[in-house]
Specification:
Strand order of the largest sheet: 3-4-5-6-7-8-9
Number of strands: 14
CATH class of the largest domain: Alpha Beta
Strand content: 25-35%
Number of helices: 7
């Protein structure tokens, strides 16, 4: 095994261990706090999962950088490997016992996307990818859909935490997509939405005002499954999370056309 294989194996182990915590506490009484807005939640499960993941990375790979949603670890510009972690993507769902959440771990090598793991603990579905090696679901290869008719496409999106106070939102674009596509889903986990594009369950996904930990793993999995990811202008700024578009590739231009001219 080379070092990238070792990193992937560790990420898979940590995602499964964090997922076990989520599964054990699912549907139990939680201590819920808010962060940037009243709809931006965090629970003790988010924090416990992050603490587990960060502690093991620091123990086994102390030279690696860590960017984690709840602030654990140390991000260093000079590190060869950088872990970008969302310990519980879909916290609002989890807090309401809505079964749509996951662990998301994306890893960069020399600041380039290299390894990705997303784990849904309730369905026991583990999505993974290593750059140049394709994408897998529970070890079996996955591929994006072949749909080339936008009117038959199944799309997904989400809405930002600041939607109650900001006029810059996704509402107009949602209407445009709704009228053009077969249907839209809004299910509250960016990482899983991206993985569903990769697996051909969705044909496209777009969202605004995310963070790097929301997209670091899922975007690589889409790319490795034969799809396309970009920002809303077709560029490469989607890794910041500011706006992200993911598709099976054939529908990407149509998605960007709908988003063209919107104030993002």
């Amino acid at each position: 095994m080379n070092e990238r294989d070792d990193v992937l194996a560790l990420a898979i182990r940590l995602a499964r261990e964090a997922g076990a915590i989520q599964r054990e506490r699912y549907g139990t009484k939680l201590r819920i706090e808010t962060k940037s807005a009243a709809v931006d939640l965090v629970t003790e499960v988010d924090k416990a999962c992050e603490a587990l993941i960060v502690a093991e990375i620091e123990r086994l790979r102390p030279e690696d950088a860590i960017l984690a949603e709840e602030g654990g670890g140390t991000d260093r510009a000079d590190a060869t490997w950088r872990w970008i972690i969302d310990p519980l993507d879909g916290t609002t769902n989890y807090a309401h016992a809505y079964p749509r959440f996951c662990v998301s771990i994306g890893i960069e090598e020399k600041r380039e996307p290299a390894v990705a793991v997303v784990y849904d603990p309730l369905l026991d579905e583990l999505f993974s990818a290593s750059a140049g090696q394709g994408a897998q679901l529970n070890g079996a290869p996955i591929h994006v859909s072949q749909e080339d008719d936008f009117s038959k496409g199944l799309m997904a999106t989400g809405f930002a935490y600041d939607r109650r106070k900001s006029d810059q939102d996704n509402v107009e674009q949602f209407i445009d997509f709704l009228k053009a596509a077969r249907a839209i889903r809004r299910d509250g986990s960016a990482a899983l939405d991206l993985c569903y594009v990769a697996a051909g369950r969705l044909d496209g996904y777009w969202e605004l005002k995310l963070s790097p930990w929301d997209v670091a793993a899922g975007c690589l999995i889409v790319d490795e499954a034969g799809g396309r990811t970009s920002d809303a202008r077709g560029g490469n700024e989607h890794w910041t999370g500011r706006h992200v578009v993911a598709s099976n590739g054939t529908l990407h231009a149509a998605m960007l056309e709908i988003l063209e001219g919107s104030e993002l």
